Structure formats: structure tokens, C-alpha cells
Backbone:
């Protein structure tokens, strides 16, 4: 999957009607409120250092759990690409990704190590046990990309 130049936006909608709130287990979930297939990568700090993992393929109007169980870090980082329309949900934190499925230790010298560099968005979970991010096509009301996440409700 190549990093594309088109920019999509990320917004959160806790009460989005496509996704029902069932008894949530502790985890980090991403919901895709678009009609397109989306590829998602996540970054986090593990005991041994920084790790990025991907790609989770999330069909339109569905959710996937990226990390199962109670979250062990306060901060998580997300990057996503629209596989059909070429947009992306990104941020200012550079981490490594690969074309195919990956689990990469470290976030420095991505290109020199044979990987690509992508900008991830930081999520401060406030040390919640669960967190959910929803990807949408809708811009924020001020025209900027709204980049937020929330504990599942």
C-alpha cells in the first residue's frame, strides 16, 4: 500500500448510527464510517521500545479491534489509508510502515531500514482501558481535520 498525497479527514462521532454500542471489552478499536476499504496501522510504546504494526483492512461501515485487552500505554498512534479513493488519515508523528503486513521495532531511520515513513496521529487515552477511533469523510466544522478519539460508550 503506497502513501498517497490526497488527504482525507478524520472525525469522531460517538453516536454514529452504523455502529451499535454493545458490551465493550477492553481494547483499541477503529471504526470505518466510510464506504471504502481502509488500511490501518498503529504505533505504540512497548517495554522493548517503539513498535508499529499494520495493515488491518477494515471494510466500510465496520469496526476492527487492533489491540485486544486492557490498554497498557497512555498514548497510541494511528495512520490509515483509503484503499479505494487514495486519501489518508494522518498526523505529525513520524513512524515506520511497510507495503505489506508489518510489525516494525523502532521509529527511526525508516527509509534506511527499507521501510516507508508515515505521519501518525497521537491519541492520549488518559490511561483508559479501552479506546475507539472512528474514521469518517466529514470535515470538522472549522474546515480543519478533526482528530479525536474516545473511550467506548
Residues:
Amino acid at each position: 500500500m503506497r502513501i498517497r498525497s490526497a488527504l482525507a479527514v478524520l472525525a469522531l462521532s460517538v453516536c454514529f448510527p452504523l455502529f451499535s454500542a454493545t458490551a465493550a471489552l477492553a481494547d483499541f478499536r477503529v471504526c470505518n464510517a466510510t464506504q471504502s476499504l481502509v488500511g490501518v496501522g498503529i504505533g505504540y510504546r512497548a517495554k522493548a521500545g517503539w513498535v508499529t504494526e499494520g495493515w488491518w483492512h477494515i471494510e466500510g461501515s465496520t469496526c476492527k479491534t487492533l489491540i485486544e485487552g486492557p490498554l497498557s500505554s497512555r498514548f497510541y498512534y494511528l495512520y490509515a489509508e483509503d484503499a479505494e479513493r487514495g486519501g489518508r488519515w494522518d498526523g505529525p508523528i513520524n513512524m515506520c510502515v511497510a507495503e505489506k503486513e508489518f510489525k516494525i521495532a523502532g521509529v527511526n531511520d525508516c527509509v534506511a531500514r527499507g521501510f516507508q515513513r508515515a505521519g501518525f496521529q497521537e491519541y492520549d487515552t488518559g490511561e483508559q482501558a479501552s479506546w475507539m477511533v472512528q474514521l469518517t469523510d466529514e470535515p470538522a466544522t472549522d474546515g480543519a481535520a478533526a482528530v479525536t478519539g474516545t473511550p467506548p460508550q
Q: What stands out?
A: The chain has one domain: 27-134. The first strand starts at residue 27 and ends at 32. The chain is about 0% helix and 40% strand.
